[in-house]
Structure formats: structure tokens, C-alpha cells
Specification:
By secondary structure, the protein is α/β, with parallel strands linked by helices. The protein has one domain: Glutaredoxin, CATH 3.40.30.10. It has four helices and seven strands. Bound molecules: zinc ion (ZN). The site of zinc ion has 8 residues, from loops.
């Protein structure tokens, strides 16, 4: 069975996981962190770029900032979407206040903005917050 490349969101190591092991809690071979924990994880720009470029599982990124009310309102929905879509896509968050250069690199004009990376490139983008049910559906249909 084919192996999927997954970047560890803790240490940045690229792991190869057999497709049939995706559902059995795969861990990073380097640092032991769980690769699929069903949580919306915060990442730094270097990890984001690596995962976006490398991963075989779709990567969803929420570009947000702590001062943004709609971003904070959307956070619980985004977290629950991460759980609902566990094994199908990984959801991460990038704080554009801490990392403005990453927002600029991805041409983020307003937040929250969600992007989906698949096969090494961006395949979808949504600007503005969405209600919980719609959010999970939006991601599901693009991953
Ligand atoms: Zn690791």
C-alpha cells in the first residue's frame, strides 16, 4: 500500500505513513508526537511551508490574529472541524500578528482567511468567517 508523506507539526520531520496506518494514531519517528491528533494546531511559517509543499494529506490553514473578533468566534468551529475531518485533512492555524511575513507571502488581505493545500499547491481559499456547519462542509468538499 502507498505511503503518505506527513510533516510532523512539532519538529518538522517528514514521515512516511502507510495509508492503512492513518487511522491507528501514527507518531513522528523523530520526536514521537502524534501526526494526526484531530486538533487545529498552531504552526510557525517554516512548518507551514514544509507541510504545504510536502504533505500528501490535504492541509487547511486558518490565517488569523488574536485581535480579530470574527477569527476568535470561528475558532471553536475550526477546532471541531479538525476533529470531524481527522484522517482526511489536517487543520492548522497561523497567527499573522506573530508572523506578518507569512500572511504577506500568501497574499492574505483580510482575516480570517482559510486556504487548502493539496498536492503541493493551494487549491482553495475562503476569506471571512463561516458558521460551524458550513465550515466543516466547505473543507470537506475541498479536501
Ligand atoms: Zn516530530
Amino acid at each position: 500500500m502507498a505511503a503518505l508523506k506527513l510533516t510532523c507539526l512539532d519538529c518538522g520531520q517528514v514521515n512516511r505513513i502507510p495509508a492503512d496506518k492513518l487511522s491507528s494514531g501514527p507518531k513522528c519517528g523523530t520526536c514521537g508526537a502524534r501526526l494526526l491528533d484531530g486538533k487545529a494546531r498552531s504552526v510557525d511559517p517554516a512548518t507551514l511551508e514544509k507541510a504545504a509543499r510536502t504533505d500528501d494529506l490535504p492541509l487547511v490553514v486558518d490565517f488569523w490574529a488574536p485581535w480579530c473578533g470574527p477569527c476568535r468566534m470561528m475558532a471553536p468551529a475550526y477546532d471541531s472541524a479538525a476533529g470531524a475531518l481527522k484522517g482526511r485533512a489536517r487543520l492548522v492555524k497561523l497567527n499573522t500578528e506573530d508572523h506578518p511575513e507569512a500572511g504577506a507571502r500568501h497574499r492574505i488581505r483580510g482575516i480570517p482567511t482559510m486556504t487548502v493545500f493539496k498536492g503541493g499547491k493551494e487549491v482553495a481559499r475562503q476569506a471571512g468567517a463561516m458558521p460551524a456547519a458550513q465550515l466543516t462542509d466547505w473543507i470537506r468538499t475541498r479536501t
